[in-house]
């Protein structure tokens, strides 16, 4: 055991509203009352922080150990070269959860389970207060990989081990959260349990979610069956967090392509989903000249092509994943087409501008002048609006400083906006939050071949560890 490292708390102040309206738990003015002795502590803390190293071999061994529960399809010859199939609240998920509870308890944590089966493992600090947490999820897609979610939890557990190895005493509690059914693969709302914790999804609705595939199990019945229906209310009020940091694989190609190691995640992009209906006139393909056609499919195809071109110009994304047409006959011009349109961009204003532009352009596409035949009709329905999420500057700063400290080079670190949703979205509604991305091989995720190399996993875990400690230190030292 090394000498104890004490992350000192100099004073306490009760919680206060920060400028974003969170109940934040700082901290006090460092400048007004610091002494030489305190300054020395501050400086030695920085050096101490950098001496805390993640054990890469231990991290990866433990990660693969937990992948014995819910092992999926092989993609290579080695025992660890498989995907994962660990649906939320399945027997395999229960085994992984049992491991998480036992392991974190053995590392000195108290463990609480809430009414959504979210597990909070909390390691005490010198002072009481809400914990600064690392959080992610142990559930996977039915044909998922070994890193999505799992790496975030395992890095959190490695953090607890490093703190224990070095006898680190944090100013306030720190912890690890396993959020239930993040994937939404078995119970079809993703991030449902962090959503209940955030007060944005009603508990009853979540409990009554029925498993996909025609089974009769609900979230509540499965929570009961595997013994994870906790007595703690699933709410940020019953379990407030001081901050939430999530290490996650990028699930995209950017870090790998740019040969960078860490993405400092500043937020999550905005998206809107629409259903577009195009109505024309059914007619015989052999007897109807172009000048007499009202071809709904041709108009829809032009709309889809236009949406992609236009989104590209705005550094946004547009996608059509569902398309149906009637009557669906080889020799009948389609009279009706319905397609989905998913529009995403880092800023709400970009998504709004694209919506406006699409509406104007689609109206032109259906005009007689444009079709060269009959006019067709277009109607829009907005199905979902998800505003951009902007993470908290204090957490982003902690991650950036940690990333530069761990990698040793600013060039290996980039700011990013997440393209996918994560539990951090809901966490960010009630506590300062940020995320850390590590490279995904070939940008692949939700696939057995999802892979992040051990070195990158360890770098990410060390950035997570430092981010949590930097935030804890910030709480203790900085106004
Ligand atoms: Zn995930």
TrEMBL record:
Residues 272-365 form the Peptidase M20 dimerisation domain. It comes from the Eukaryota. Pfam families: M20_dimer (PF07687), Peptidase_M20 (PF01546). Keywords: Hydrolase. One of its GO terms (molecular function) is hydrolase activity, acting on carbon-nitrogen (but not peptide) bonds, in linear amidines. The keyword Hydrolase applies. Gene3D superfamilies: 3.30.70.360, Zn peptidases. InterPro entries: Amidase_Cbmase (IPR010158), Bact_exopeptidase_dim_dom (IPR036264), Peptidase_M20 (IPR002933), Peptidase_M20_dimer (IPR011650). PANTHER family: ALLANTOATE AMIDOHYDROLASE (PTHR32494:SF5), ALLANTOATE DEIMINASE-RELATED (PTHR32494). Belongs to the peptidase M20A family. This is Amidase. It comes from Diplogelasinospora grovesii.
């Amino acid at each position: 055991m090394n000498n104890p490292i004490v992350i000192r708390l100099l004073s306490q102040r009760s919680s206060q509203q920060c400028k974003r309206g969170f109940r934040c738990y700082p901290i006090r003015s460092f400048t007004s009352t610091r002494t030489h002795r305190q300054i020395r502590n501050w400086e030695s803390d920085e050096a101490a922080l950098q001496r805390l190293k993640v054990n890469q071999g231990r991290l990866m061994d433990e990660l693969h150990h937990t992948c014995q529960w819910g092992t999926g399809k092989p993609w290579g010859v080695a025992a660890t070269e498989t995907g994962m199939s660990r649906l939320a609240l399945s027997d395999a998920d229960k085994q992984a959860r049992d491991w998480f509870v036992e392991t974190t308890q053995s590392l000195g944590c108290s463990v609480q389970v809430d009414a959504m089966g979210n597990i909070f493992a909390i390691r005490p600090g010198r002072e009481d207060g809400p914990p600064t947490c690392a959080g992610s999820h142990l559930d996977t897609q039915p044909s998922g990989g070994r890193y999505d979610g799992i790496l975030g939890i395992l890095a959190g557990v490695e953090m607890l081990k490093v703190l224990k190895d070095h006898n680190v005493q944090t100013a306030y509690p720190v912890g690890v959260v396993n959020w239930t059914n993040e994937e939404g693969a078995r119970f079809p709302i993703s991030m449902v349990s962090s959503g209940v914790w955030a007060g944005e999804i009603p508990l009853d609705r979540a409990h009554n979610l029925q498993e996909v595939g025609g089974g009769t199990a609900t979230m509540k019945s499965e929570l009961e069956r595997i013994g994870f229906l906790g007595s703690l209310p699933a709410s940020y009020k019953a379990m407030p967090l001081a901050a939430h940091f999530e290490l996650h694989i990028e699930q995209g190609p950017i870090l790998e392509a740019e040969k960078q190691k860490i993405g400092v995640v500043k937020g999550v992009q905005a998206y809107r989903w629409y259903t577009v209906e195009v109505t024309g006139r059914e007619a015989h393909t052999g007897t109807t000249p172009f000048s007499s056609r009202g071809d709904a499919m041709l108009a829809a195809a032009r709309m889809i092509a236009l949406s992609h071109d236009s989104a590209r110009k705005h550094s946004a994304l547009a996608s059509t994943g569902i398309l149906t047409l009637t009557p669906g006959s080889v020799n009948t011009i389609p009279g009706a087409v319905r397609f989905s349109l998913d529009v995403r961009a880092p800023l709400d204003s970009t998504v709004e501008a694209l919506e406006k532009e699409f509406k104007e352009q689609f109206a032109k596409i259906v005009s007689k002048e444009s079709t060269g035949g009959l006019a067709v009709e277009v109607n829009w329905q907005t199905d979902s609006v998800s505003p951009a999420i902007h993470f908290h500057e204090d957490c982003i700063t902690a991650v950036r400083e940690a990333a530069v400290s761990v990698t040793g080079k600013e060039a290996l670190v980039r700011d990013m906006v997440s393209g996918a949703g994560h539990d951090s979205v809901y966490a960010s509604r009630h506590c300062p939050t940020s995320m850390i991305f590590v490279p995904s091989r070939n940008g692949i995720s939700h696939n057995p071949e999802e892979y992040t190399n051990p070195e990158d996993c360890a770098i990410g875990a060390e950035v997570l560890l430092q981010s949590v400690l930097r935030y804890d230190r910030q709480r203790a030292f900085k106004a």
